[in-house]
Design a protein that fits this description.
The protein is α+β, with helices and mostly antiparallel strands. It contains 13 helices and five strands. The longest helix is centred in the middle third of the chain and has 22 residues, at about 150-170. The radius of gyration is 19 Å and the shape is elongated.
Length: about 260
């Protein structure tokens, strides 16, 4: 499948416009999800990893009326994606068919009651994390007639997951009723320097950071130099260790353009 990520900016540029939780859900569905051929989505907030968020923390996009109430009332407790999220070895992305073999899936009550009436088919879920902590899960759903997500697409989604984490963080900044956990190691940095540091730790190149923040690579280099100086580090690896976050692989040009054809 050809993903419309011919340029990484197709995905990263809109992040700068995320300022509220609603913006984040819109970004997830209409920018991230559409790139994978999704026509529907579900985002379940899991602030602090909380297992049972309120119904207000469950967001259905593109589904028939009543789908959210049906899910919360009948299927949330037995949702295999929910179980996967709670596993200590849960990765960044998973397909529903990785969790439930297709023959069993077609006979599952939630498949017949929710997916079939909505003409919904393959599901790809991306764990939304910020600084290593679970913030929620975004499930992207293709039409019933479409093919399942491929293993390469799952890998591409996992590689791009830090973009969802960043968008979530920006969305929380516009939520008045949420108190964000202070980034203690970054407390001495300006807000822009924090953004640059977090993107650098996530594995983004200087050019990618510049596109994301709508600035120039030279400006990013100056800001990163200031971050290194203030935190007394010399390399990005030391920066990652300093802020207590694990570095993810940088997004390769191949993965950005044709994830299904990467070696």
């Amino acid at each position: 499948m050809d993903l419309p990520f011919a340029y990484l900016s197709t995905l990263l540029d809109p992040i700068a416009r995320v300022g509220t939780p609603e913006d984040f859900v819109h970004f997830g569905m209409h920018v991230f999800g559409r790139g994978f051929g999704a026509t529907k989505a579900v985002f379940v907030e899991r602030p602090g990893g909380r297992v049972d968020p309120s119904a207000d923390a469950v967001h259905f996009v593109g589904w028939r009326g009543g789908s959210k109430a049906q899910y919360c009332g009948r299927f949330r407790q037995t949702d295999p994606i929910r179980t996967w999220l709670d596993r200590p070895d849960a990765g960044a992305a998973v397909r529903l068919t990785d969790l439930v073999p297709l023959p069993h899936l077609r006979n599952a009550p939630f498949f017949r009651a929710m997916l079939v009436p909505n003409e919904a088919g393959a599901v790809l879920t991306v764990a939304v994390r910020h600084q290593g902590q679970l913030a929620g899960a975004f499930s992207f759903v293709r039409p019933m007639a479409a093919q399942d997500f491929s293993p390469r697409e799952r890998e591409a989604a996992a590689l791009l997951a830090p973009a969802l984490g960043l968008a979530w963080r920006l969305g929380q900044a516009g939520r008045a009723d949420v108190t964000l956990v202070a980034d203690a190691p970054l407390a001495g940095l300006s807000s822009r320097e924090r953004e640059v540091a977090q993107l650098a730790v996530a594995g983004h190149s200087t050019k990618q950071i510049a596109r994301t923040l709508g600035t120039s690579p030279s400006t990013v280099k100056k800001q990163l130099a200031a971050v290194f100086r203030k935190l007394d580090v010399r390399t990005r690896a030391q920066l990652g260790a300093r802020v207590g976050a694990q570095r993810t692989p940088a997004i390769s040009a191949c993965a950005a353009i044709r994830p299904d054809q990467c070696d």
